[in-house]
Amino acid sequence: MNDRTINLTTRGRIFALMLRHYYLYRGSWPRIIELAYWPLMQIFLWGFISQFFQQHSTLIAQAGGLLLAGVMLWDVMFRGQLGVSVSFLEELWARNLGQMFISPLRPVELAAALMSVSLVRTLVGLIPAALIAWLLYEFAITSIGPGLIVFFFMLLAFSWAVGLAVCGLLLRYGLGAESLAWVTVFALAPISAVYYPVSVLPEWLQWIALATPSAHVFEGMRAVMLEGRFDWEHCFWALGLNVIAVALAVWIFASAFDAARRDGRLLQSGE
Amino acid sequence: MSNAEVHKPVEVIGLGKKFGEVVAAEAIDFNVERGRVVGLLGGNGAGKTTTMSMLMGLLTPTSGIARIFGKDASTRDAGALARINFSSPYVEMPGRLTVAENLEIYARLFGLRHPKDRIAKLARDLDLESFLHRPTRTLSAGQKSRSALAKSLINAPELLLLDEPTASLDPDTADWVRRYIETYQAETGAAILLASHNMPEVERLCDDVLMMRDGRIIDRGAPSALIARHGRQNMEEVFLDIARGGSAAPAGTGL
Question: What's the whole-model pTM score?
Answer without folding.
Answer: 0.89
